Amino acid sequence: MENYIIEMLNITKKFPGIIANDNITLKLKKGEIHALLGENGAGKSTLMSVLFGLYQAEEGEIRKNGQVVKINNPNDANELGIGMVHQHFKLVEIFTVLENIILGVEPNTAGFLKKKEAREKVINLSEKYGLRVDPDELIEDITVGMQQRVEILKMLYRDNEILIFDEPTAVLTPQEIKEILQIMRDFAEEGKSILFITHKLNEIMEVADRCTVLRKGKCMGTVNINETSKEELSRMMVGRNITFSVHKDEVKTGDVTLSVKNLTVASKTHKNNAVKNVSFDVRGGEILCIAGIDGNGQTEFVNALTGLDKVSSGAIKLCGEDITKSSIRRRSILGMSHIPEDRHKYGLVLDYKLGQNLVLQRYWQKDFQKSGFIKFDAVREYAEKLIDEFDIRSSQGPDTIARSMSGGNQQKAIVAREIDKEPELLVAVQPTRGLDVGAIEYVHKQLVARRDAGKAVLLVSLELDEVMDVSDRILVMYEGEIVGELDPKIATVEELGLYMSGAKRDVVKEINDGGK
Amino acid sequence: MDTVYYLIQNMLPVAMPLLLVALGGMFSEIGGIVNIALEGIMLFGAFFATLFVYFVQDLGLSPQTVLLLGMLIAAAAGLIYSLLLSFAAVTMKADQVITGTSLNMLIPAVILLVSKMFFMSDGITTNMNFYIKEFPVLGKIPILGKMFFQRTYLTVFISLVFLIIAIIIFYKTKFGLRLRACGEHPQAADSVGINVTKMRYLGTSLSGIFGGIGGFFYCVGVMDGNVNGHTGVAGFGFLALAVMIFGQWKPIKIFFASLFFAFLRTLAYSVSLIPFLYNLGINQNYYKMMPYLATMIVLAFTSKKSRAPKAEGVPYDKAQR
Amino acid sequence: MGENNQVVKNKFNLKRITHSKGFSSLTSALIAILLGLLFGLIVMIFAKPDSAWAGFKFIVLGGFKRIGDVFYFATPILMTGLSVGFAYKIGLFNIGASGQYTMGMFFALYVGFMFDLPGNSHWIVAVLAGMLGGMLWGFIPGFFKAFLNVNEVITSIMFNYIGMYLVDMWVQGSSVMYVATKTRTNYLPTDVQIPSLGIKGSNVNYGIVLAIAIGIILYIVLEKTTFGYELKATGYNKFASEYAGMKGKRNTIITMLIAGGLAGLGGAFAILAPSGIAGSSMTYEPINIIAPAGFNGIAVALLGNSHPIGTIFSSIFISHIQRGGTLASLVGFKPEIIDVVISVIIYFSAFAAIVSTAFGGIIKKFVGKKKIDDNSKHNINEDSLVEKSDNNIKGAE
């Protein structure tokens, strides 16, 4: 009989109208790294939230060292020694590192904080595990990698021995990923038990001892890593073989569609410029990708390019016309489409119907209005056409409220709307974020189709695989500058990582900078 | 020099209600609840405290004792009234601005109703004199004595104590840290086991206590101990909101912001005593508009940069994490 | 709105109805009204137990005896209600309807007293002037919001006070307008008064007809035009509307201009109305009080779910209980009781939707249990599986 530190037995968790976890069993051994694999929406986060006390399961039980335990809130989890690094960090930006670490377990006398004591403990921990942080810096001033260290320190500060890592590598460079995987190994050696949520097979093969696979809320089984292969895991995860590469023909580039010259954009959060002196061209028939770690100026760059924010200096030309100061509408008319990073914030009016959303970029065109009155029939017809062509699934067709649609179909709606405009330049920012494998393939195909039609595509992505597979040319952005240009056919992921972390930059670029 | 003394002596009793109410607003908002009901909370506190004064004024208690007791009543009343906001905004996840507006509308109507039915007037008039002509010993200090310890109210000194308490809560306590976390990033607070609902109730309740007391101090320091359903607290609750924004949701800055607004208002109402302004012959109504206009000017210059608590005004939904 | 009902050709499908937006806003309005009236009754019982029931009956039923007056007094609050509701659809909370109303009233008064225009054109110009005054006062918070990032609620409140002091000062400063001995404005010449509809025992006039017509026009603008499409998109999601190339700042200002104009018209309709004594008009008392019509407009708009047509009905209802409240003074109550009732109604409207969803859920449980053959439901189930994880992303940002 094996000894398990944590057993989650027959867990069922329902949300209104959906079963997120259906009779799932997961057993964690002491001192092991146990991967939890599944697509977006497979129920991994829900299961971990149940273990961490954020949700309560309707059925099933949780045992620690064989004893049945009740976990009603994160405090209960903490008392059982369970800690979690959330995928999206739960850090208060205007607090210091120290304040974030102690929040919830503040050392105090009669309610008054005793920060001195806490600081010493934090410094000791960070030295012991090589997690370098300054306890007095504000979260908003430190890098994503450091923020993750703060999250890890939060667990260590609470003396947790069961550590949950929810997609910890999603926002890191390859080098940083190596670091975090090593840290996880160290923890395991020390006797801590680790649950590692991910959908990246390479990482599982590299670091995990065992792996439990979820698909659509159901448990597909637990396997020993040294007895399995990537292919088997991917079959368990998706239910079929995944094609790991995107099929593309040779590049046939045409004229310059977009030309960016010495673009500089001010930052809204700090005094330095967010985008510094960026220049490049995109031609018809190519997919140019801007790679980089989140927060290196990509968002500000895209906002300036698409007209959402102002440019400090420099020039942007689209199809020969200077659009540096043009309105968003003008850019759209000239042939720019934009699949935004945040589909809920920018891409959709969630309380509008699907049909209304599909004409969001063209409701003002003659086809859809007559002297200010909307042609409802034309809108409906057009919406039905797009729904059909792009296979957008919803419960009531054009009348479906966008909010009630699944994330994948919301994204399809946006892609359909932006592509059907037949743009000269398609700006796609993290177009596959949060989608499942099927939807990702679909979006990639659409991007390639635009390219094959001889139009320009500018892809901004944080996903290394996407960057390497889809693009024809890669520019790496680091701290607001373009630090290198790579050919995905030649370059390696490691090389890309060096550029992304700022460890390497091209001489060519520096000559350019020097000559300004 | 006399004018300066006069202005300071008159400014402080006006500044203190603004200070207290703005601090109250701060506690509510750093917890994540927009408290536009401050006006109503003030009036509710003022009404019950004044009612109390009305009933005890002939018992021969010393005015300062009555003031302290009235303050406790006002605090309790403000707290109770603020619970209506918490219930709607936190428990029922209602629109905080609408809820606040309804609470602001309710209380003047109640005062008018009660006063008209039972006192045959638009409000409650008391004849208790809370004014302190001169503090013993302290009042004799040259210059400072005349500025701060003559012709004043006890409310000034109580309020400063409350300011210090607020600063300590804000920066030095576990409660303050947790409350601010709830207003900035409630999901983060929840994930470390902090009960967001409870914290928000507490934050709003604190604003009820501060607001209620502030309302009573307004009656004492500005209205000579009376309360009236028609004029209410003359928009002081809203001015306090502006003071809070101007003070960037930080207690010490709020203190200076309240002094600034109080100074303007005092100036506006003292025109006839300041020969220079009086001789300009500008209609008094313009001066009355001054605090409101000043608010707008100040906000116009500060709002672009102002940083409100991030999760302010958004009901916390446990499922959305 | 309501379109769901038309799509389904079933004779009677209770589930569809309980699900539709219209039903839910109607039930929530009714729940809020019931709770408001109940609270009023409790206050009355505490205040004067003997005559509480008689007074309550006046409040609920009294208005039916004075239908003309109900419409007469519904006119201004319908306009302020439309003003608040219109702005709310675009995501702006126009608590400044009071100031806009007061400004509109003053502009109308000014044209009424100071201009000499022939025949019918005089009252029409006065009405338009009122609209202009309101627009001016609506523009300010719109401008502050759009260009200076100042919350429209604060600006509106401040300009309520500023407008009130200004108008009081201007009125008192004019010997033509102001009768100092009576602390009110003079009666307006009859040609500036809005023509009466000629209903016996009431001064109900063309104001109400115009107001209802404006409500219907607003409905058409919001629901049928690209302009309305833009404005509502801005209200639902200003980021998405900006992304789609709509001019958010311009729309904010236009919205506040329109909202201000509507409230201003309310002020004009109120002050230009003929009053009880033959030949006299309504008058204004400059006593440094913020016009309650603006705040009542908030109640009217909320009850009407910010829908122009709903607002027409809710304004009539509010006016109805106000008339009742006046009558309740016959048994010793003060009309302020109605303000109490109205504020309680607003309080509950703010979250009545949640209550009514629960209420609708109960009905559904009784009726819907037997029907499992609902295809669309199955669809949603699968979809929302992914949706859940998506929410996670959004919520955590």
Automatic annotation (TrEMBL), chain B:
Membrane topology qualifier: Multi-pass membrane protein
Source organism of this protein record: Paratissierella segnis
Keyword Transmembrane appears in the UniProt entry: yes
Keywords, sorted A to Z: Cell membrane, Membrane, Transmembrane, Transmembrane helix
Transmembrane segments: 6-24, 36-56, 68-90, 97-119, 152-171, 201-223, 229-247, 254-278, 284-302
UniProt GO molecular function: transmembrane transporter activity
Name of the protein in question: ABC transporter permease
Pfam families (alphabetical): BPD_transp_2 (PF02653)
Cell location: Cell membrane
Gene Ontology cellular component annotations, sorted alphabetically: plasma membrane
Record-linked InterPro entries: ABC_transp_permease (IPR001851)
Automatic annotation (TrEMBL), chain C:
Family annotation (CDD domains): TM_PBP1_transp_TpRbsC_like (cd06580)
InterPro entries given in the database record: ABC_transp_permease
Keyword Transmembrane: yes
Entry's localization field: Cell membrane
Keyword set, alphabetical order: Cell membrane, Membrane, Transmembrane, Transmembrane helix
Membrane topology summary: Multi-pass membrane protein
GO terms under cellular component: plasma membrane
GO MF, one example: transmembrane transporter activity
Transmembrane segments: 23-47, 70-88, 95-115, 121-140, 204-222, 253-273, 340-363
PANTHER family xref list: ABC TRANSPORTER, PERMEASE PROTEIN (PTHR47089), GUANOSINE ABC TRANSPORTER PERMEASE PROTEIN NUPP (PTHR47089:SF1)
Name the UniProt record assigns to this protein: ABC transporter permease
